[in-house]
Design brief:
Layout lengths: L1 H16 L8 E4 L20 E7 L2 E3 L2 E4 L4 E6 L8 E4 L15 E5 L4 E6 L7 E6 L1
Parallel strand pairs: 2-5, 4-9
Antiparallel strand pairs: 1-7, 2-3, 5-7, 6-8, 8-9
Length: 133
């Protein structure tokens, strides 16, 4: 029985590790509280610095962020239920975080300039916009 559990756990880990896209890189993480707000379009961001977005009360805060080409955005779920970060429109490869449990984070690095719209597929009114400079 323990061999079956080990095989199942390995299969799940490989399945999760295999999710992602070609050009834009993404990772999941268990760390961080994410209480810092993101740098908005007025403040810029990126260039190796992570931009932060907090998912709380079925809202992305801030909704609109700017990141420099090569910059990373980290979304932190501060709700007790799952959210996703899923690209709807814009340049570059598609991305989808899969379910992000409460207290967990998702990171995405952006290399293609332009405006990207994204949504939580669980909560379609929870949207956001990313400007990559």
């Amino acid at each position: 029985m323990s061999k079956l559990l080990l095989i199942g756990a390995c299969g799940l880990a490989l399945g999760v590790a295999g999710c992602g896209s070609d050009d834009e890189s993404s990772t999941g993480s268990d760390s961080g509280s994410g209480s810092q707000p993101a740098e908005t379009s007025a403040g810029g961001g990126g260039g190796g610095k992570a931009v932060e977005v907090v998912m709380k009360d079925v809202t992305n805060t801030p909704m609109d962020v700017t990141v420099k080409k090569g910059g990373t955005i980290t979304w932190t779920n501060e709700d007790p239920f799952d959210h996703t970060v899923t690209k709807q429109t814009g340049p570059g490869p598609k991305f989808d975080s899969g379910n992000i449990a409460g207290g967990k984070t998702y990171e995405q690095t952006f290399t293609t300039p332009g405006e990207i719209d994204y949504v939580c597929t669980i909560h379609p009114n929870q949207t956001g916009k990313i400007t990559v400079e």
